[in-house]
Amino acid sequence: MSTVQVYETFTSIQGESTFSGVSCFFIRLTGCNLRCAYCDTTQAFEGGRQRFVGDLVSEAVASRSRIIEVTGGEPLLQEGFSDLAAALLAEVKRPLLVETNGSCDISLIPDGAVGVIDVKTPGSGECGSFDVANIDRLRAQDELKFVIGDHHDYEWSKQFVVKHGLNDRCHAVLFSPVAGTLAASDLAGWIVEDGAPVRLQLQLHRILGVL
Ligand code: SF4
Questions:
Q1: pLDDT in tens, 62-105
Q2: In whole angstroms, what is the distance from residue 130 CA to residue 110 CA?
Q3: Domain total of the chain
């Protein structure tokens, strides 16, 4: 039976997608290949323990959440990811989100799941990590997320969205301010002023002070 290295599981409020505000059972896998300047989950770079996919599915089924999310770290790095995602889709029968940093092949995310896919901006310190081949792999249900630290990040992200016609390729393009660095009202003002083809996204879980 397949295993994955799990840092933690928990139930909380989904905070970073169009599912924001919905109760969610999170499976956070250990390890990440990036080192973003604003990372709020550095503790998950290592540690945790190997867990059987079947046990995680049982835990997800028992949770009272409305949706399930596999996150990290970077979940697509793990060999057992595909078996985990397939089992969750088959047995939990609730919407499944997979949050990924955009550097890995998103075709690993099964068709029945929603990809919440980062495009790292200059301010992250990991700009250029995005696998541009992922643009052609986007499905109608996927969501792209840009975490914006300043006006330069905003301009860079807006140009990336327009250049690649991202609004026509996926369900949503989300611009989210780095909490504690950029005022959401500033980002909102830029989006409104430009008529930018994006959706403002606040990191609801951080506003609430939950995981
Ligand atoms: S990709 Fe996510 S988990 Fe990895 S360093 Fe960046 S913010 Fe942290």
A1: 999 999 999 999 999 999 999 999 999 999 999 999 999 999 99
A2: 19
A3: 1
Expressed in angstroms and rounded, the spacing between residue 34 Cα and the centre of ligand 1 is 6
Mutate to test the pocket of ligand 1, among 7, 8, 33, 34 (most ligand atoms within 8 A of CB): 34
Domain harbouring 114, CATH code: 3.20.20.70
- Residue 183: which domain range? 3-208
Angle, CA of 68, 73 and 74, to the nearest 5° = 80
Q: What is the pTM of this model?
A: 0.96
Ligand 1 centroid to residue 132 C-alpha, Å: 18
How far apart CA 211 and CA 209 sit, in angstroms, is 7
Residue 211's pLDDT is 58
- Ligand 1 atom closest to Cα of 72? 3
